Amino acid sequence: MAANNIINDTDANLNSLQGRVFTQIQNDILNGKYEPGDSLIETRLCEEMGVSRTPIREAIRQLELEGLVQSIPNKGAIVNGISTKDIDDIYKIRIVLEGIAARWATEKITDDEISELKNAVELQEFYTQKNDIEQLMKYDSRFHDLIYEASKSKPLMHTLSTFHHYVQRARNLSFGTPGRALNVLKEHEAILKAISDRNPDEAEKLTTEHVKNASINLIMQNPEKRKQL
Amino acid sequence: MAANNIINDTDANLNSLQGRVFTQIQNDILNGKYEPGDSLIETRLCEEMGVSRTPIREAIRQLELEGLVQSIPNKGAIVNGISTKDIDDIYKIRIVLEGIAARWATEKITDDEISELKNAVELQEFYTQKNDIEQLMKYDSRFHDLIYEASKSKPLMHTLSTFHHYVQRARNLSFGTPGRALNVLKEHEAILKAISDRNPDEAEKLTTEHVKNASINLIMQNPEKRKQL
DNA sequence: GGTTGTATAATTGTATACAATAATACAAAC
DNA sequence: GTTTGTATTATTGTATACAATTATACAACC
Description:
The structure is a homodimer of 229-residue chains. Chain A is mostly helical and 229 residues long. Chain A has helices at residues 9-12, 17-30, 42-49, 53-66, 84-108, 111-130, 133-150, 154-166, 168-175, 180-196, 200-219, 223-227, and strands spanning 39-40, 69-72, 76-79.
């Protein structure tokens, strides 16, 4: 029951109009509705979303900071998007960062948080058996988010949450491959055990392996499918 | 002469009014002018900086995304700042990320970029001998920025640039301790050699050690001085 | 004294107006 | 046919107006 209110950036600003606009455009970029090179015209976005320019502009400025668009003075914002190489790089970086997160989480996690983690894995197991990929991915994300939180490190949490969101589509693709879902579940169960055994070395090692496997699985994808990202 | 126009986020948006406002407030937070818990009143910032609310609001939204302020709907933005623990965490994360950056840079760096790197180290040596800490830190930053660029990885570049900016004040403190400047110079020279020898293993190892040393140096600081951060 | 209610002020949220800049179209010149 | 110049349009930059929300002050009440 504990930290159900502490959620990631993306969810947190869903209350404000500006926040929703930001999330919308960000997903539109990540999902390829706006492709690299496209220019984001403020008035067009206004009409499309039924809001004024102010929240649109604020959202664009945030996207600019994130590097998802490049904004040229007096000319406007052109979409940068994230490339296949960016995603590969993110996975390589995550190999070490997720490991660190698991270590720190193991050192600092509370009993309540362990319960939540267990709960997430159980639900993931349930939906893995049901073969419900959407729900399954939801609890996969939740598992990782809980570890970020448990690490009690704001910089780490922030960096990993952003990265995790960026590679969401890649994960989507990855979960489609036969057997992958079951492997992910097994790996999560092993990591959970290491954490609840309070074994940081093991937790870090297993998590590193886990992300490495995800990375390998992604790279082995059909290049044409990957292009769709 | 090459990539002198490719600079980090913070410098890039100094053209636009909004960009200057953002940089200003960000530094005011990092330098402690606005302390954690303070609330940023838009109209007050307007008067202070002589601009209208629009650029102020856009800047605040960016700070919100960065996590430097927390914005509560209809109530406004309160300063979060970064804690001593955040800085410690950033250093621990940088130990591995800077290592990766150095490895990737070594694998991908161009001859032009090596020249620039050499140039930066030479200027750093010059100002180390002159004991000009401000200039010295400028070329210390440049050295790292050039490595980020040379890594050719947008996600890595982005993450490390942000972190590097956040710990600027901490570095300031660190460079004040006797002998540190000379050690930093020696370490940079060794890293430069490894990179121009195209030895990724060595470059990564030396860079990891370099950040570790910086981290140790920081932690050994007088806790009272650290509190001033 | 403390609490509650209400009027006022302060502040943010959103939309829009106007100015400045850049893009476009099209005619005139060569 | 290509280029140049100019008028028009589109778009962004900045400021401001108005609405909605929240904070504050202060009196009335218990």
